[in-house]
Amino acid sequence: MAYLNEIWFILVAVLFVGFFFLEGFDFGVGMSMQLLGKDAHERRILINTIGPFWDANEVWLITAGGAIFAAFPHWYATMFSGYYIPFTVLLLALIGRGVAFEFRGKVEKASWIKTWDWVIFFGSLLPPFLLGVLFTSILRGMPIDQSMNMYAGFTDFVNLYSVIGGVAVTVLCLLHGLIFVTLRTEGDLRNRARKLGQRVLLIALPVLVVFVGVSILETDIYTVRPIITIPLTVLIVVCYVAALFFMRKERDGWTFLFTGAGIMVTVTMLFTALFPRVMISSINHAFDLTIQNAASGSYSLTVMTIVAISLLPFVLGYQIWSYYVFRKRVSGKEPMTY
Questions:
Q1: Nearest Cα to 17, choosing from 52, 73, 67?
Q2: Which residues form the signal peptide (predicted)?
Q3: Residue-wise over 91-121: b if at least 16 C-beta within 10 A, else e?
């Protein structure tokens, strides 16, 4: 059942699309605390805009990792062993961020609150940057041998292309988060978030152009499947230009829709460019990991497909319900949990 390999590749892609859309604005709000919040009270308002959602949004990343482990164990083994240090830093950042959300409001002391605010900031800054570095380095190719072992040095992880990719993902998440703030807050804080969002968007557009230019030089994104990736790239630009238009019209809902669409199309394009590969070898393309040679057996994929189809409606239903329940804006006048 070769089609199951394709289904699970698509499912992994969908999970990452959902993660970057949902956790993207979480990261953005976390970064905006030090850029937007004038005092501890405003920063607390910002935290409470994502308070009911951040942990559920992170589940998309955990589920994506679990799906890779179950459906493509060789991909999981190569990637997680090869990226051991970046993943460790990523994990520590996410742990610190989660702890900070819970501990920040436990002690009414300025130094205590300030410390955890900075933990939230860096815990929101590092993950999108590291994930951007990870995905762009995969697209560029890593030193993977015929045994599917990856022997990567520092410059394989950190180079001009991966840094640009990390910066691009970080900026897009910050922008997405600022627009989310406009949907969840009121008054001056909301207006300042919108103004800062405009400035960030004007930075994001040239960053995206640079990323596309370097991608043409460093990867085969636009040669393997140009009939799809080129239109998707144009669509990404259209999304952010439309976001700028609606932002200036103060149509925050439409702006959020287009910043989110921009992120979703970007991740979709990256997975489209990879397919049917899951990791590219810079040593020899014969050593590439694909959805065929990295996959589990057909029986395992069949069972997992049945389980996924059975549970997915409940997971999506719960997430939609939680956003509906906590749909009201945070003014700072009501009791705040975080």
A1: 67
A2: none
A3: eebbebbbebbeebbeeeeeeebeebbebbb
> Dihedrals φ, ψ of 162, to 5°?
-65, -35
Residue given tokens 């790239």 in the structure block: 233
pTM of structure: 0.93
CA angle 186–192–193, rounded 5-degree value: 80
331 vs 168: CA distance, rounded Å: 31
Report pLDDT for 332: 67
The candidate with the shortest Cα–Cα distance to 236, out of 215, 261, 216, is 261
- Mean pLDDT over each residue of the chain, to the nearest integer: 91
- 129 class by beta-carbon count within 10 Å (0-12 exposed, 13-18 middle, 19+ buried): buried
Q: What is the pLDDT of residues 70-118, one digit of tens each?
A: 999 999 999 998 899 999 999 999 999 999 998 988 888 888 999 999 9
Q: Which of 142, 136, 277 is nearest to 211 (CA)?
A: 136
Shortest CA distance to 149 belongs to which of 295, 297, 279?
279
